[in-house]
Automatic annotation (TrEMBL), chains A, B:
Gene expressing this chain: argB
InterPro entries in the cross-refs: AceGlu_kinase-like_sf, AcgluKinase_fam, ArgB, Asp/Glu/Uridylate_kinase
Entry function: Catalyzes the ATP-dependent phosphorylation of N-acetyl-L-glutamate.
Pathway entry: Amino-acid biosynthesis; L-arginine biosynthesis; N(2)-acetyl-L-ornithine from L-glutamate: step 2/4
Protein's recorded name: Acetylglutamate kinase
Cross-referenced CDD domains: AAK_NAGK-like
Presence of keyword tRNA processing: no
Localization annotation: Cytoplasm
Amino acid sequence: MSKPQLSVVKIGGNVIDNESALQAFLVDFAALEGFKILVHGGGKIATKIAESLDITAIFHEGRRITDRPMLDVAVMTYAGLINKDITAKLQALQNNAMGFTGADGNLILSEKRKNAAVDFGFVGDVVAVNADLIQVLLLQNVVPVFSAITHDGKGQLFNTNADTIASTIAVACSNYFNVNLLYCFEKKGVLMDSENEESVIKNLTFEAYRELCEQKVIHSGMLPKLENCFDALHKGVSQIGIGSPEMLKKDNSIFTLVTA
Amino acid sequence: MSKPQLSVVKIGGNVIDNESALQAFLVDFAALEGFKILVHGGGKIATKIAESLDITAIFHEGRRITDRPMLDVAVMTYAGLINKDITAKLQALQNNAMGFTGADGNLILSEKRKNAAVDFGFVGDVVAVNADLIQVLLLQNVVPVFSAITHDGKGQLFNTNADTIASTIAVACSNYFNVNLLYCFEKKGVLMDSENEESVIKNLTFEAYRELCEQKVIHSGMLPKLENCFDALHKGVSQIGIGSPEMLKKDNSIFTLVTA
């Protein structure tokens, strides 16, 4: 028997920070057929609120350190303000959304980041996803909406990378579903020429990816993102789309389809 | 066939504001046998955060008006910070807690308060509880943890009275469960003499309540609380306990048991 379809969609701060862009995205997401899960990142609201609360962001070589006050702000804004706003808006669009952190239902267990040269503070890497409970929820027509907060099972919450949450959920759910993982970001897809927004690579297989890496067409920020994609495909995800939020529209064919 | 037991426990700010009191309460709550639901109020954290964000609390005759900035603070602290902290802590106590607002899974639908002499702003009164979905979650051994935020189904979140949330959930679930509703507050129970903390009325029936009202033994703040209790009992709740958080301890018999 073939598995049912599941779409796991990740949106980042560029969508969340823009009220009309968020609403337009949610209308498209709500219209998606089949089982679906939304994973959202943070956006600038957390930084703004931290500033208002006189909490200073600490960085090490450009990477944010999550100390306790900053974790509290992340929990307040990601799991509180943003997650519940999205949930209420999806309810208004007749999607039975339910907002989660990894602590809720022990859905995403993580552990404090290890082996890093620097202590990033309350940052967790995913250890396990409770796909059984996610499946139960999906079969109740619930649309899970995940913020990028996880827990260690010992009472501690962690800030976690939203891309990783999306891919680990996608992998864990691939036991039960044919999973289509969609990364929405600020570009229309993986570009052949980073200066040309229209140079979207429409199909990217692992073989093509290797070649483009050798030719230095794919480099810097796109490298870890695509490595994660091929890892997820290797672990059972059916296909991955990378593109703008417009990717969810039925008539849109301009995005990068990543397949094994 | 007899219905299974369900405990609906409400805690207020006095427990939430005190870290060790909260932990002690959660240990007792986690040890409760049978199906259970936790409803929590706000506490002083919201006021503190609002002050830090330079948001001025607006009051009308001693009652708080929830304007938009204050609603955002309520969502951040109640549904974010407090709810996820409690959820993570219950996970550490081997309870599969899942934190909710009313928007999540459309669990509690409300409408903006009507017919009030004053516009209280984003304050909602409960219209419906999705007891079917709550039952599904309970049967998965999920322990729902509700913050006092609801939604109108049209995308708007509302601040809602936590006592009312507890009683409406209790009533809605009484179709499926024998519901024991427990209100934890700062006293040991309903007192015969408000000056004497030990004068707890151990059993309170509607008949006894009527008499005590006539004798002016029960008055002021306790009146609406008890009216709500008898209303909930009338609508199907089996019994109601009113007392300190210690009420949850197995060997504690000092609290007020309210029955029809």
